[in-house]
Recover the amino acids of this structure.
């Protein structure tokens, strides 16, 4: 049986662990580091809680690293890594080369899941792609394998977009409530509207531009709203926000306070 460990058990690791545990059939052995949410989750789910990180690594085959990015290298340094180990880092902005040096001679891959992993609904980007890890990641949602680390950094911006979209859903809910809808109905409508839009783009073969054009009929409500958003430079602001996040990832400051 493959032995899985989590080094660093914060909110993202908790979401991943909950995703792994959604279907306990053929569940691999899970062990958690002794800090953060580790003790709580080990007790709740009946998982192994390691006494020390060196023992955690020694007793594992695949180690998921989910510390704060600024703590990642220190957390994996001077641990008993073996050539057969796979270290899977979910730490945004920490380069593969740094991880490989600190965890030598282990093999290293980078991933970026979302907290929707807890629902089995997280698109999880990965580089490099290790076949041994894909069945585990597939428990969390679709796996998107990327060709190089530059693509991975670009894709990691989507982890920030994920939060922005939730903020937009909140704005939609608030507007609807202010105009007379109940909070429960407004929340459900705003959330599932975004789900519906995402599914159309993910599952339909037409280009995104065609799908939008089919909605934005001349004189219609979609066209009118898009025009107002353009007047307020929403597209430029969105692009600038994405550029700013990518710059933060590339300059190594993702794990530090702004």
């Amino acid at each position: 049986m493959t032995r899985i460990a989590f080094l660093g058990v914060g909110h993202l690791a908790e979401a991943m662990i909950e995703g792994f545990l959604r279907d306990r059939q053929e569940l691999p052995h899970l062990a958690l580091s002794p800090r953060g949410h580790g003790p709580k989750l080990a007790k709740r789910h009946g998982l192994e809680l390691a006494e020390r990180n060196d023992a955690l690594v020694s007793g594992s085959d695949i180690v998921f690293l989910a510390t704060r990015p600024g703590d990642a290298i220190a957390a994996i340094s001077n641990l008993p890594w073996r050539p057969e180990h796979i270290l899977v880092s979910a730490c945004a902005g920490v380069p593969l080369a740094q991880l490989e040096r600190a965890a030598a001679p282990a093999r290293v891959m980078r991933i970026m899941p979302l907290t929707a992993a807890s629902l089995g609904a997280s698109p999880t980007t990965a580089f490099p792609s290790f076949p041994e890890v894909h069945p585990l990641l597939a428990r969390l949602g679709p796996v998107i394998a990327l060709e190089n680390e530059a693509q991975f950094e670009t894709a990691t911006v989507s982890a920030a977009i994920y939060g922005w979209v939730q903020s937009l859903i909140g704005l939609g809910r608030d507007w609807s409530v202010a105009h007379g809808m109940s909070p429960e109905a407004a929340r459900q409508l705003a959330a599932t509207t975004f789900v519906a839009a995402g599914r159309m783009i993910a599952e339909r073969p037409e280009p995104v531009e065609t799908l939008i054009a089919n909605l934005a009929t001349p004189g219609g409500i979609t066209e009118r709203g898009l025009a107002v958003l353009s007047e307020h430079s929403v597209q430029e602001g969105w692009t600038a926000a994405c550029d700013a996040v990518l710059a933060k990832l590339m300059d190594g400051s993702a794990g530090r306070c702004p």
